[in-house]
Each structure stands twice: as structure tokens, then as C-alpha cells.
């Protein structure tokens, strides 16, 4: 069976985990957490990066730092994972969904301004498949309306928009290091902070509302509870696992990109024949080969393709059920404007196996099975 995903493993993870154990430091903010933070800061150019227990928690921290209050409204796409909305719903906000662009599956930047009310507090663009939203337009809207921007860059590490790392363009950004992501620590994430003036409060929120980070730096002689917060620090064991992969980030990137490019090249004739649609990478964007998807004619065809692949021992998956159609989406949010593309495009999209270490043999089998399916059309 060719799996849809296999978590990345480069070989040094065990050594680093054992090192953390032998140093008797396995709780948060030890040597490996700091190494990961520093690596991410250097790679992205963010003023500060803080490793977290998940991308969900990184986004929750961003909501706290944006001072989201009950009754506030936050604009985002409906085609996203539940965590994008949960982080703000937990603060009492109403989620306002707008339609997506069919080419990138990202939020349609031209639909945002019409959704703004006097209650709007933030815009949350989601960089689907590691391909950037149209951030110049979004940042211009936010500036004119005095809104915060929180980038959901869960899939966006190593991707850029006009030379800027995703997650560093808005006020805050969030990465994911879940086992399905390009670089993994099992469960984990990171908060990216654009303005260093927000760093101290972020550290306090992350450390259960205490100024413990300042104490460990020797800036104060004791620490205490100073603000509302929670425990968003990952274990050193998780950070040690991740650091081994960050050290070989380019190797993992190149391996995934090779598979992505081979898929694109192989399926281009199907796209030229009008049988499928391929991912679009807009000018000015670089992506990270987080996923490769095809768009089928409709839901029926996608279902048939997934079934055909499974019969041939290949696991393909579809992605998000649009949040506005979910029970919680109806309870905590609303869709502004017309759902022209969100539901229709989500029902056509199928994701192909893509992970670090996918063999040429397995990749070629995936290509052959897809071509065989469409040869019958």
C-alpha cells in the first residue's frame, strides 16, 4: 500500500532526543527549543519565533495578542482546517467566512473589504498548500481599516511571497509541525512575531501568564503571575525531533519538490486535454511542495478516482469540508457574500501521496494509476 503520508525522519532525531534525556531537561524551553526558535528566526527573518505545542496553539496565542474580545468579528476563508476558526471562537469572536479563489484555493482578497463591519478586528489569510495569498492587497486593506492580520501558514514553511517568508508579513504568523507537514515534531507549531514589541507579552502568555522567561534570562530576581495565559511550550523531546529535520531542511525540501515537479510534468498532458486541473503558483510566489493535488470534473469523479486508487493500493484523500457548512460553522460564524467557489472547488480536489522519501517506484505507480483512470474517460 502506498500511503498518503509518512512522517519525515532523517536519522538524527533519536540521537537528539537521547541527548535531551541525558541532560535531564525534557520540559519546554530547553536547548533544542531554543535551537529551533533561532533556526526559524534566521530562516524567516521574523523578529521572534516561539515554538508551541501546535499550530492551533500558536494561532490561539495570536488571537490573545490581537486582544480579540467577545463580539469581535474575524474574516477568513471557509476552506481551511477547524483550528483557524477555533482560535478566535474561543475568544468569543464571530467568524466571517468569504469565498476563495479557484486558482489557488486561497481567500479571495477582492471579497474581504465587503465583509468588514465596525466589529471586524482581524483578517486571517490561509496559505493553502504553501502557496501565498495575495498579501499586498490584504495588508493594504488591513492598514486602511486598522485591522490585525494573522497568517495561517500551517502549510507554509519555506514558502515566500515577493521574497518574504510566509508568516512574517502580517502581525503574526503560525506554522505547523504536525506529522503531516514538511517538517514534523509529531504535534507542534510555532508563533511568528513581526513586531518585537509584542515579544514580551507573547512569552508571558506562552508561560502560563508568568514572566518566567525574563527570570531565566536573569532580568528579574523572581517570577510571578502577571497576565492571563496558558501552557503553550512543547516538550524538549518534540523539539529535539524537529531540530534534526531543520538541520536538513533543504534536503527534505528538494526531495519533496522533485516529487511535486515529476507529478506536474506527468499530469500536464491530462490538464492540456481538459481532464484535470493542476495547482497554480502565482507570479511572485515560491512554494514548498507541501502537497500536490488534482482537480477532478466533480465530486462523483473524485470519489471514483479515490476508489480506483485504493483498489490499486494507493491512498489518496480529499481535504477540508468547508467550515461554514459544518454545525459549529453555522453556530459560530456566517458566510458573507455568495459561495461561488468554496464548496464546488473543495468537492473536486484530491490530494496525491507526497512525502519525504517517497520512492521513484511508488511515485511512478501513482502516476500510472491516475493516467489509467483517465484513459477510460
As residue ranges, the low-confidence spans are none
- From the alpha-carbon coordinates, what is the Rg to the nearest angstrom? 21 Å
CATH topology of the largest domain: Aspartate Aminotransferase, domain 2
At the fourth CATH level, what is the homologous superfamily of the largest domain? Type I PLP-dependent aspartate aminotransferase-like (Major domain)
DSSP strand content: 5-15%
DSSP E strands, number: 13
Shape: globular
Structural class, from secondary structure content?
A: alpha/beta
Q: What is the annotated CATH architecture of the largest domain?
A: 3-Layer(aba) Sandwich
Give the total of domains: 2
Q: Give the H and E element order.
A: HHEHEHEEHEEEEEHHHHEEHHEHEH
Number of helices: 13
Helix content: 25-40%
User: Which strands sit side by side, in order, in the main sheet?
Assistant: 1-9-8-5-4-2-3-12
Largest sheet: 8 strands, mixed
CATH top level of the largest domain?
Alpha Beta
Mean of pLDDT: 97
- N-to-C span: 25 Å
Amino acid at each position: 500500500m502506498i500511503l498518503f503520508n509518512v512522517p519525515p525522519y532523517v536519522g538524527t532525531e533519536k540521537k537528539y532526543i537521547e541527548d535531551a534525556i541525558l541532560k535531564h531537561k525534557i520540559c519546554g524551553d530547553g536547548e533544542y527549543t531554543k535551537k529551533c526558535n533561532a533556526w526559524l528566526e534566521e530562516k524567516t527573518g521574523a523578529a521572534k519565533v516561539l515554538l508551541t505545542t501546535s499550530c492551533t496553539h500558536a494561532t490561539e496565542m495570536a488571537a490573545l495578542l490581537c486582544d480579540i474580545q467577545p463580539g469581535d468579528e474575524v474574516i477568513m476563508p471557509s476552506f481551511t482546517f477547524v483550528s483557524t476558526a477555533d482560535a478566535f471562537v474561543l475568544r468569543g469572536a464571530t467568524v466571517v467566512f468569504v469565498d476563495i479563489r479557484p486558482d489557488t484555493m486561497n481567500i479571495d482578497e477582492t471579497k474581504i473589504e465587503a465583509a468588514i463591519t465596525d466589529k471586524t478586528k482581524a483578517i486571517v489569510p490561509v496559505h493553502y498548500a504553501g502557496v501565498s495569498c495575495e498579501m499586498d492587497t490584504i495588508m493594504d486593506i488591513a492598514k486602511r481599516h486598522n485591522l490585525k492580520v494573522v497568517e495561517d501558514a500551517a502549510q507554509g514553511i519555506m514558502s515566500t511571497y515577493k521574497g518574504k517568508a510566509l508568516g512574517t508579513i502580517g502581525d503574526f504568523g503560525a506554522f505547523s509541525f504536525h506529522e503531516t507537514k514538511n517538517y514534523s515534531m509529531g504535534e507542534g507549531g510555532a508563533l511568528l512575531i513581526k513586531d518585537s514589541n509584542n515579544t514580551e507579552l507573547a512569552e508571558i502568555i506562552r508561560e502560563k501568564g508568568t514572566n518566567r522567561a525574563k527570570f531565566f534570562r536573569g532580568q528579574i530576581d523572581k517570577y510571578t503571575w502577571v497576565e492571563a495565559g496558558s501552557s503553550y511550550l512543547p516538550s524538549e523531546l518534540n523539539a529535539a525531533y524537529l531540530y534534526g529535520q531543520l538541520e536538513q531542511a533543504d534536503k527534505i525540501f528538494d526531495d519533496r519538490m522533485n516529487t511535486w515537479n515529476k507529478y506536474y510534468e506527468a499530469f500536464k498532458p491530462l490538464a492540456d486535454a481538459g481532464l484535470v486541473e493542476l495547482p497554480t503558483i502565482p507570479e511572485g510566489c515560491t512554494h514548498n511542495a507541501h502537497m500536490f493535488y488534482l482537480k477532478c470534473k466533480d465530486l462523483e469523479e473524485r470519489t471514483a478516482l479515490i476508489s480506483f486508487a485504493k483498489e490499486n493500493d494507493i491512498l489518496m484523500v480529499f481535504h477540508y469540508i468547508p467550515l461554514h457548512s459544518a454545525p459549529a460553522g453555522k453556530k459560530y460564524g456566517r458566510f458573507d457574500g455568495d459561495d461561488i467557489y468554496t464548496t464546488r472547488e473543495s468537492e473536486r480536489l484530491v490530494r496525491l501521496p507526497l512525502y519525504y522519501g517517497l520512492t521513484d517506484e511508488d511515485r511512478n505507480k501513482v502516476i500510472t494509476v491516475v493516467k489509467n483512470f483517465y484513459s477510460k474517460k
